Amino acid sequence: MQRSFGTKISGNRRPEAELSETARAGIIAASEAGVSKLKIAAEYRVNRLTVYDTINQWKNHHTLKSLPRPREPEKLTQYQKHLLIQIVRIHPRINYAALKCHAAGVTVTHKTLYRLLKKYHITNWRAKKRPKLTPAAAQLRLC
């Protein structure tokens, strides 16, 4: 059941969980009403720093939604990605070690190359086992 605005937050909220937009709005409203940060933190059962961060986020970004987290920069440039895809399309049976040797300056793991190729739907699979073509079957095909 969803909690209505202004009511007390349940003790069932997970620690380290995101605050809901209504909780953030309540924190900002209480802060603008002049309630101390410690009382707000006690009322919403959050850390005092969470209250400060929520207020600063509102002042700087004017949003109640979660901001995107910084992430690690990509290992491959667009040029390197394009080069690797070209090499794989020219040599479809190339393995990852040889692929890294062909692309100068690329130092990434096997898993990174796998994810890149999978994004472009380039994967490997077992070839279907087919019966050998016998001379008798070949003769029938010619006729």
Task: Please give a structural write-up.
Helices cover 50% and strands 0% of the residues. It starts with 20 loop residues before the first helix and ends with a helix. The chain folds into two domains: 1-68, Arc Repressor Mutant, subunit A (Orthogonal Bundle), CATH 1.10.10.10; 78-119. The protein has 143 residues and is mostly helical. It has seven helices and no strands.
Shape type = elongated
Kindly estimate the percentage of residues that lie in beta strands according to DSSP: under 5%
According to DSSP, the number of beta strands is: 0
Number of helices: 7
Distance between the termini: 75 Å
CATH architecture of the largest domain: Orthogonal Bundle
What kind of sheet is the major sheet?
Answer: none
Radius of gyration: 29 Å
Q: Residue-averaged pLDDT, rounded?
A: 86
Which consecutive residue ranges, at least 5 long each, have pLDDT under 50? Answer: none
CATH superfamily of the largest domain: Winged helix-like DNA-binding domain superfamily/Winged helix DNA-binding domain
Order of helices and strands: HHHHHHH
Q: Which structural class should the secondary elements be placed in?
A: mainly alpha
What is CATH's topology name of the largest domain?
Arc Repressor Mutant, subunit A
